[in-house]
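Give me the fold.
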Amino acid sequence: VSIVTGGTYVLNTLRSEMDLARKKTNFVANVSHELKTPLTSIRMFAEMLRERRQPDLNKQDKYLHIMVSETERLTRLINNVLDFSRMEKGNKLYDKKTLNASSICEDLLESQRLRLEQNGFQVNFTGPPAPVYIEGDEESLKQAVLNLLSNAEKYSQNVKKIDIEVSRLEDNIFLTVKDRGIGIEPKFAQKIFKEFFRADESLTSKVRGSGLGLTISKKIINDLGGDILYYPRKGGGSIFQIKLPAKDFS
């Protein structure tokens, strides 16, 4: 019995280690691909501008906007990897201030709008008429929302439509990202925030991702005193909702 029990334990441990090693290998390959994609765009547009191949000033301005957007995308990818390392070591620090959540989300979407529309997306923002405030770290909050936006972008196929909504209900502020993508099967809904998890491994060759975006977003929002919730969207797609305590002024 002891030999069988010990052998089973060793086999299970070995299987777990091999699975983790495979996921880390996929992670490196996917991150490399994700870094290469925006770099290719930046280089292409930079060379066109340097060689003055595009005389139209409006198009030059559009190219510059796309380059800035892709640079922000690169920054997010690098921050995800660095933050995951910090979070594992417990070294993640936050600079908490009073923030207008609605303004941050709207500005963030506008910074990505041109690139998304260039890729065939329809993007919409809906916010309250008055500012809604939270206590949080601005860069970390932006990173969390950008990760959700990137997730919606990657998993949208036939219907390319993304909505960001900011609302208040009682003492909570909600930042909601909705898409019409492929959605998530119910059996995977509880696992999607786990590091390196991919809801459908068959999509790996089609949809590249580090498998860290949702993990990091949830950790950031948890550290800021909130949570991220997932809901299937009626008619197809996904809804990710950030819930944070409202900051009131007395």
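The longest helix spans residues 2-50.
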